[in-house]
């Protein structure tokens, strides 16, 4: 079975269960522990599907789009054949986007991440117990605008032989017309995109470090709907607020720690907590 990077599938599980799951905090750093990392490859991020392709040869820029099919109703009405039709239509639109966008974001992703790690005083060490897979995430919305951010898959080896796994996602405030990127970025656009994504890598590493240092205190339980995380079906996702500023919110969710701009791509409301039913007496 092909694996694919569609955040909404993970977020659906995180947001729609009776008892929401939230990613556990990363293992705590002790005072004498070196802040280091090594790189690894998470194969699911490198694998293409009808909803995920890559815009560069290194497969460091993942592109996600889910438009083109008839929606959930087609699958319900026509069963397996409807689902297959949906996949085929979405695949056709994804392929068309890929033809327009491939190579149009000439970003040295590996170098950008390395520089961001250096700024966060993190050292590359081939023997580190921490493994990172960083990548850029480009998501198309219904208006054919491209929302951009970064993501980081993390594995931390434990003394007992187990491995803690987690994910961190940071959405930038960039939202650029697909057609503009397809036409090729000018120097100003390239500088803007490069700078925003390099800063995003710095911010995502700060999320990781704050998580490991125990700097976050969970506050409000909220439900969000995000174009970046679920561009087509507007799924609701449970989250615990870790930080909130005038222009950004950071949440702990079932799909990891997520930092999102407070703009038109996000709606957020307080979660309604269901009270347990009172037991009946015989």
TrEMBL record:
Cleavable signal peptide: 1-18
Protein keywords: Signal
Is Signal among the key words of this record? Answer: yes
Report the superkingdom from the record: Bacteria
Q: Does the keyword Signal apply?
A: yes
Name listed for the protein in its UniProt record: Lipoprotein
